Amino acid sequence: MVSADDAVKFIHPGDTVAISGFASAGTPKDTIPALAARIGQVRAAGTDFAINLLTGASVSTDTERLLAEVDGIALRMPYQSEPTARGRINSGTMDYVDIHLSHVAQQVWLGYYGKVDIAIVEVSGITESGELIPSASVGNNKTWLDVAEKVILEVNSGIPSHIEGMHDIYYGTALPPNRKPIMITKVDDRIGQPTFRVDPDKVVAVVRTHSPDAGSPVTAPDAVSQAIADHVLDFFAHEVKAGRLPADTLLPLQAGIGNVANAVLGGLDHGGYRGLSCYTEVIQDGMLHLIKEGIVTHASTTALALSDAGFEDLQANIDFYHSRIILRPQEISNHPEVVRRLGLIAMNGMLEADIYGNVNSTHIMGTKIMNGIGGSGDFARNGFVSIFLSPSTARGGAISAIVPMVPHVDHTEHDVQVIVTEQGLADLRSLSPRKRARAMIDKCAHPDYRDALDDYFLRAQAATGAGQTPHLLGETFAFHQRYLETGSMK
Amino acid sequence: MVSADDAVKFIHPGDTVAISGFASAGTPKDTIPALAARIGQVRAAGTDFAINLLTGASVSTDTERLLAEVDGIALRMPYQSEPTARGRINSGTMDYVDIHLSHVAQQVWLGYYGKVDIAIVEVSGITESGELIPSASVGNNKTWLDVAEKVILEVNSGIPSHIEGMHDIYYGTALPPNRKPIMITKVDDRIGQPTFRVDPDKVVAVVRTHSPDAGSPVTAPDAVSQAIADHVLDFFAHEVKAGRLPADTLLPLQAGIGNVANAVLGGLDHGGYRGLSCYTEVIQDGMLHLIKEGIVTHASTTALALSDAGFEDLQANIDFYHSRIILRPQEISNHPEVVRRLGLIAMNGMLEADIYGNVNSTHIMGTKIMNGIGGSGDFARNGFVSIFLSPSTARGGAISAIVPMVPHVDHTEHDVQVIVTEQGLADLRSLSPRKRARAMIDKCAHPDYRDALDDYFLRAQAATGAGQTPHLLGETFAFHQRYLETGSMK
């Protein structure tokens, strides 16, 4: 049992440090600020000090910021969403490797990032037999505890203690040729145990804290988000009518974070649904509400990114939520095998899509990273239907989310089936690229940009004699170049 | 029992026709030429006649050509590789929908392409109880027989009769929420039955033929293919040394069709390997040789695209091959669950890659389709390691296979791990995009193009203040534009 300041003395320049944390949940509260301070001091004294930082996904904003401010991160993997870190990446002083969240555990097991020197993992308690009770996110913690040479545990008494038992930590994964089927056939199937194992000989420090997760704020949907949500709900009704989705229960829902996803979940409140389920990577307040109302029966996730009020609700009604929410390692919450088998309805945000249905989730104007791909590819690629959502414009209309060609592709035409903006919904399934372009321009583009997109599409066909995917290579990025030069794509 | 000419009278303009065939194996031999002739006659008489054509993958060249020549195909799905059809697609007279081969069965079950009016399926025989013995490819035949309203069977006595029993037709797939784990944990696990089922009431015609599959020619590897293969074999040795691949058996191999894949398989002959296995979608002659030598113990596929000599070998040694080769439906040979679990070494060709590791498998100069994505995405995305292979130049050096940005993305930076040309191998794993660019230019690009790529990369960094993925939006496709204007990227 040591102080955070003492614990971080086990961390050395060049170390690969794997920490807990997924979205706003489960980042070590005291150890990381202490590490950032130590790096700052060492650097101030003239010695270089940076680590390679592996996480679940994004971590608490302070964590990412403090480490970035002292230039403490040499390499970052797999997802970030904090402005200071983003600035370091885009200025070339931090390496960022953007991989699918379902790939992280196996790639680290295989040593793609060298050995993991130290893991720093927040837990909500330690059992009498020495097993670890996870906190509000699971992420890659099981893997970190298994592969790291040294372990620092942060035992946080600020996490609702009754969370114990909500987790399902599966120890059956392996590297090939020893992989077995993952026997989840329903969202609420439990295949693991409620605690992490750790080799006590590896634990070099235990730090005690009492710090709740910083609440993940929830904002009410605006008119644009609400319009997007309405189109999605219409689509569900259409698919039910076509016999492709069960009428009451649909299929398990996956939704990204943010206003639009919240609006969709909010809309389910009024859709007459009962007994829905969710298989996703992050649960926010809206999900608690749906569970309480009986609209959602079970929800599986790897993180609880709740607001302060959400955590209070969880705490106050823990007996009710306990059997209805399951927290899994992200290699299971995002596992291609399970995603495919359960048949997820995958709903994820995007920065922009092109008229042929290719999606950019990560890069501003093709060059600067925004966040990362996160789990969107895991769900979109292997899900039952892959839906991407975005307002049709950004920056007060200066940016069109529908463009002739995206300057970075995170999801290809083969993996994108439905695109939704507040203007409408383009159902790209079974359409050839030329027909997709018609749907994208007519249904999804903002009216201010329709003529320019139409003009591009028609001239591209004329210039190339049609073609499977007509493009004018000299002006594919005219929208983006205009924005960079004038501040508007118009 | 009717003639092919009579059988095709069941096919009407606007019908969706699902036929057997995967690569050169298993296309109906007589019915399709009869259908093409009928369409030609009806059209000559002034009536419009076109069908929607669904297949396994490519079908025999004649099939695709004859139907395209009479403008008999309105919509084509999921893969084609024949020049006449390609011309119709690129001139805008044929719709082509390019989807992952593993997605075909479920999308058709869900009705994305409307109802399937008629299936035309080649079989090698009919059992006494009325079940169907598959021929040299399985493809989507199980699905076609299940979903089609009418069925035409072509019973081909030209297929080696002892092929019976080599097939493993799995009837356990379902639509969610009723999906169960697919219990394959080894390449040679059998989970199905040797025959197809068909509702006899749906069978409107049986056509008898005696026509072997047109042999799929094999060419000896040239120096470039051999150099690529050597780099791949070095990589295997490197991965074995790093403890990531089992020394003798590696992990199951998947290889696309063509010279380069053949060279890699040929190279395994001299690598000291024993007890390898393959889990792939097409087997060519080289695989028979490896099996005969004991280098490969078991091979799973959905098609046997053999040369005439290969079929003779199969026939002559059928007792030996019978237990060593398994033919599965393509929804299983390419299934994400199985691909991930077995941990495939995915090796696929490409048209071009960009310096950041995005791969174009399908589009010439961004607009015109070449073939289709086929199964490459199924294997690359969920496999153990995804390797893409290509000569560093095409058309006598006028085209560089390594470019600043690919004008069409079929495999994103998140799904591409290793790129190989005859120049060398770029191991992109764990590298940020800027470091990937260094590896791609130094290891994979042809020396004639290295300076131009370097120049682009350096100027892009300078202009954007580094950035995660530096690009100059005004000249991303300068290589391609130069080729279109001058006939050379130089």
UniProtKB/TrEMBL annotation, chains A, B:
Instruction: Please give the SUPFAM superfamilies that the UniProt record associates with this protein.
Output: NagB/RpiA/CoA transferase-like
Task: Give the record's keywords alphabetically.
Answer: Transferase
Q: Name one Pfam family in it.
A: AcetylCoA_hydro
A GO term (biological process) for this protein? acetyl-CoA metabolic process
Q: Where is the active site?
A: 281 (5-glutamyl coenzyme a thioester intermediate)
State a single Gene Ontology molecular function. acetyl-CoA hydrolase activity
Instruction: Name the species this protein comes from.
Output: Gordonia amarae NBRC 15530
| Residue ranges occupied by any Acetyl-CoA hydrolase/transferase N-terminal domain in the UniProt entry | 3-207
Q: Under which name does UniProt file this protein?
A: Putative succinyl-CoA--acetate CoA-transferase
The similarity annotation says: Belongs to the acetyl-CoA hydrolase/transferase family.
Among InterPro entries, the record links this protein to: AcetylCoA_hyd_C, AcetylCoA_hyd_C_sf, ActCoA_hydro, ActCoA_hydro_N, NagB/RpiA_transferase-like, Succinate_CoA_transferase
Specify the Acetyl-CoA hydrolase/transferase C-terminal domain's residue ranges: 310-456
Q: Which residues bind CoA?
A: 256-260, 371, 375
